[in-house]
Amino acid sequence: MKKTFKLTHPKIKVPQLVAAIKYEVKKYLKRERRKVLPKGVDFWDFDCRMGVDESSSEVFHVYDINKAIDHAELKQLESFYLEILAKPGRRTKKPREGHAVEKDDS
């Protein structure tokens, strides 16, 4: 999804526009996650960018989408650019910290 969302409308208030944008993004993410995974892939990951326009957009994590949209609303922007691209993801094992087995000398 590469889209410029407008936060101004002659009849619809800004909070309703923001709620509609969040719903559209949520619906897009659900639709992408339902797609069949390629072989050797664990989950769908997403590359996200947002800014005033495409050239000034910054990278952020998929879980921060709602915060970024709220931030655009607080800045009272007329519009913002949002890019969400699905990519295959593979889980990696986290290293265990402090779980070393200690031997007793008794």
How would you describe the overall organization of this protein?
The chain is an alpha+beta fold. It has one domain (11-89). Helices cover 28% and strands 26% of the residues. The protein has two helices and four strands. It has helices at residues 14-33, 65-74; strands at residues 2-6, 43-51, 58-60, 79-89. Strands 1-4-2-3 form a four-stranded antiparallel beta sheet, with helices on one face. Strand 2 (43-51) and strand 3 (58-60) form a beta hairpin. The longest helix has 20 residues, at 14-33. It is elongated. The mean pLDDT is 90.
Topology:
Layout: E1 2-6, H1 14-33, E2 43-51, E3 58-60, H2 65-74, E4 79-89
Antiparallel strand pairs: 1-4, 2-3, 2-4
Keywords:
28% helix; 2 helices; four-stranded antiparallel sheet; 106 residues; 4 strands; alpha+beta; elongated
